[in-house]
Amino acid sequence: MSIMEPDLHKLKINDPFLGQYQQLVRNVVIPYQWDALNDRIAEAEPSHAITNFRIAAGLEHGEFYGMVFQDSDVAKWLEAVAWSLCQKPDPELEKTADDVIDLVAAAQCDDGYLNTYFTVKAPGERWTNLAECHELYCAGHMIEAGVAYFQGTGKRALLDVVCKLADHIDSVFGAGENQLHGYPGHPEIELALMRLYDVTQESRYLTLVKYFVEERGAQPHFYDIEYEKRGKTSHWHNYGPAWMVKDKAYSQAHQPLTEQQTAIGHAVRFVYLMTGVAHLARLSNDESKRQDCLRLWNNMVQRQLYITGGIGSQSSGEAFSSDYDLPNDTVYAESCASIGLMMFARRMLEMEADSQYADVMERALYNTVLGGMALDGKHFFYVNPLEVHPKTLAFNHIYDHVKPVRQRWFGCACCPPNIARVLTSLGHYIYTARTDALFINLYVGNSAAVPVGDNELQLRISGNYPWQEQVKIDITSPVKVEHTLALRLPDWCADPQVVLNGEAVTGDVRQGYCYLTRCWQEGDSITLTLPMPVRRLYGNPQVRQQAGKVALQRGPLVYCLEEADNGAALHNLSLPADSAFRVFEGKGLFSHKILIQAEGFVQRVLKVESQPLWQYDRAPTTREAQTLTFIPWFSWANRGEGEMRIWVDEV
Amino acid sequence: MSIMEPDLHKLKINDPFLGQYQQLVRNVVIPYQWDALNDRIAEAEPSHAITNFRIAAGLEHGEFYGMVFQDSDVAKWLEAVAWSLCQKPDPELEKTADDVIDLVAAAQCDDGYLNTYFTVKAPGERWTNLAECHELYCAGHMIEAGVAYFQGTGKRALLDVVCKLADHIDSVFGAGENQLHGYPGHPEIELALMRLYDVTQESRYLTLVKYFVEERGAQPHFYDIEYEKRGKTSHWHNYGPAWMVKDKAYSQAHQPLTEQQTAIGHAVRFVYLMTGVAHLARLSNDESKRQDCLRLWNNMVQRQLYITGGIGSQSSGEAFSSDYDLPNDTVYAESCASIGLMMFARRMLEMEADSQYADVMERALYNTVLGGMALDGKHFFYVNPLEVHPKTLAFNHIYDHVKPVRQRWFGCACCPPNIARVLTSLGHYIYTARTDALFINLYVGNSAAVPVGDNELQLRISGNYPWQEQVKIDITSPVKVEHTLALRLPDWCADPQVVLNGEAVTGDVRQGYCYLTRCWQEGDSITLTLPMPVRRLYGNPQVRQQAGKVALQRGPLVYCLEEADNGAALHNLSLPADSAFRVFEGKGLFSHKILIQAEGFVQRVLKVESQPLWQYDRAPTTREAQTLTFIPWFSWANRGEGEMRIWVDEV
């Protein structure tokens, strides 16, 4: 059994909802980010990323500017462009990207090394600070871009660059006497080399991933060795000197992966690492690594995942904290971490065919990932809280990382281009195309053609997900194809119904997928009905931040209260356990979106003018009826600054 | 109308409850802290404070060690000893203290300067870094000790030292051309000089306080001027270079006091400053400064005070945050801040004769201040949270400052000796002895003699406060004395009853005091009955961290749930709005203490073994009856590590 990555040329998204997001990425986000990379956006923090490449290529004189990982923003933009070109050819954009690729190639050193920070700023310090300096991380992103651009355009220029880069890295790292026994401080190259292996079938790349993964956390510790060797210099100081070297759990390098029991450290690093490990485990049939994936996935999802698909409960280290510690207001939940979670889930799905991975992937996509970008495509969240009280943010340091509205760009700009590349490559997440079955993970409207043996199964998914309950799957293959379709039955749906050519079928349901095997032909049609009553969700009783509270979900969407609809002091609102819900389509910003209303209560202050001096008097409030309006959480903060909260007191 | 500070020799505490605390301070805390100051406690962080004085005095060679304000620990210990000697003579202890005073005198420079850090470590840098280096703060504490030791023992040695020190400071600071136009980064000397003025009637000291207060926040800013002058060196780096210079609100120096609208910055600094300002405002009849005190007191108490009498909502800067932002678990609420709050309240009482100040003073004393020390007198809290979940603390940086159990000593050891000196000088808080009336603020058992004109009013307060409702006040003067007694009617008491010689009286009640004027004589007896039903307290509706929750208070004591009585996961407990309370005396650690029980609920997990993978399932719990046991919050964490919470969901 093997997996065939869907060819995104043959997978056209026409979803009324996410299709618009893709359009937004094409029309707004990609041009906007191109401007940002070239420092043409007045109100945004400077990027300098393209200029760095020009300086490294010798085309311009100047100083490197930006983060040590500034190159990766260019790589992610190129990847977004690559996937976007699959959806819609755009010669002008392709020309721009080709020029960037020429520039990247020109910035590559003769030996294959490619990194503008070190080339321009510290040429003598190559590979001396793996723990802190993101060289392999940047390489990983460029490799991903090279693979994507090859897949998206058929052009090999960047693929050749990154193969040369990967070959160089392969020569530098390994068990050999003259090689570095190191591995990245920020994992990323593992998942990238696996993609490069997929495309090139060059076994050295897979072997190198295995080396990086298995060397990780070995003693004596590589981070300490290189730290001593370079004279104890340190690149990052925000938590004290060399903290990134010392706090090895931050990089998931405190112990070998086989010994790790919990999702720990920097959340993005964790899911990036595990994405590569899961890919490697499947392709190398490595049961031990598969167990590592299952164990760490379970810890993360069962004990450290937010209802929004967010991970990373704390700002310090942008990291996981501990089991069942899920603060709503001080949470980090970086947009990139939820993107990485989707990537990890995708690789788990390819290994396991268990819908729980798709459930989490969908939750991350429709909530935190979409929420990371404003509806205008020009403003972004890095941090995605579940509760915000804007008036307080500036005055209490526990909220230093929280912004009440999306920002135009960031000094550390990892998230915006990451959102762009994941939204343009949705096709990779919709299906898992295995030789034995085509798994449909997400009900995003699209038409696709997937190879089945020597044939091709063509199909079309349509509907108005996630707003409406019916999804239609039409087979459009001109010739008959014998194959199995595996339809995901979402965890949020209590009573899914499958109708095939007008007849209800139960199918063969295993691990959350309904398997339908048949000789498919044009005209075959499946109607999947996924009833979407408003669900009341309750926290795991171990999670103290959710005790006594309820959250609403409809379909895959988590809902929230916003000040714009419900007034300030949202904490004084409560929802009776027996309130009925009204769902209706919103207006303006919320047109084509479903909102929810319910009758609730508000605690009102009695006689404000005579409010007692001492603030803790006997019940200075009275409970009055108030209609509560809930909006899809991903769309919050599109109407200016205001309070927001997901978890509401249930009374 | 003037105030006479009670002579603590004539004020003997014999309270069954706080008397034991005083005994603990005498028998355990003072000797223990003496050992600590001399580095004889193995498990505690080193102090080196006495050695610093020996080195400064030239009696020993060595290096200064410790905080720049290490001297103040010795001063606070001396002050605690002084007050303790009033209560119970102890020749051996007095000899030890006299030796310390000789040592302090020997460490004083010829010109009056006294500070071991600068004398030993940086003699050329005297008065070059007021913003950061605590010279005036240390001077203030030593002045307080000098005043106290004089009042407590009649000995002038330390008083002479500190007068010489104050005179030196008076020569260095002021409006003169060759004087420094500066003021302390950490206020303290203001309140100390006011006490020195009380004792010496030297008007220069009062004038100097006025200078320090009025110069504060003036432009161009003194902190900037001295920063430039010393070549931009900085002593503290924890929040970035020279942050203490830059963040002037931290020291309440961002603007003149008259312009400040909110309690802001480092909480201890704020209340220390305001203690001095209130004292100055009264003695100089300065209506503008009185208004400053009223305005800032009101902001603090109405919008930034915890139910426990704690202040300082955040660990960053040990500081206030903003109006109505009162997190229970990430709060700082330093023990010293509540001691400073008592001091500020005392000075407000002397100015205003309004019981609201005594209400806050009592709340701080019986909750946070007592809670700052373990029942064994050997362990201390620096930070006093209202909710603790120990398992989480080590893994989420928002809890970095929180300890689940009291510690033996601290590298920054301001709190333990501060608790000792306030508990030994309780007499200063019990009464406000004005010429027109004797105000009884606290119902601590004691016998006292207070001058009234040429006579003396002798009285005895007895009872078993705060556990029992009846307080008896017996007049014991052998001769008749015409005077007014003003009995505080606590804010927590809905229905206080006053019986004078067997007859109910209503008295003349103004601003929370019941005034009784009479020619008092031996045998006169007042019985004050303060009914102590368990009260349910509710947060101000602006405070989101208390929404939907209730806290219990009986008398002045705030209660809490602890894991030891109620099991783990306290967040799953709730208290019905109509539950009845049982009060009863506890056992063991809680003997002589009143505990509270009520029938409540616990959310129990249904079928733990089959708990769903996905943590947010539909109501995975059931609500079962459970008896809730509440203990006085000040006595929490005396049974090892466990969860604690004050605010409980009300259902």
UniProtKB/TrEMBL annotation, chains A, B:
Residues 12-427 form the Non-reducing end beta-L-arabinofuranosidase-like GH127 catalytic domain. It comes from the Bacteria. Residues 534-648 form the Non-reducing end beta-L-arabinofuranosidase-like GH127 C-terminal domain. Signal peptide: none annotated. InterPro entries: 6-hairpin_glycosidase_sf, Beta-AFase-like, Beta-AFase-like_GH127_C, Beta-AFase-like_GH127_cat, Beta-AFase-like_GH127_middle. Residues 438-532 form the Non-reducing end beta-L-arabinofuranosidase-like GH127 middle domain. This is Glycoside hydrolase family 127 protein. It comes from Lelliottia aquatilis.
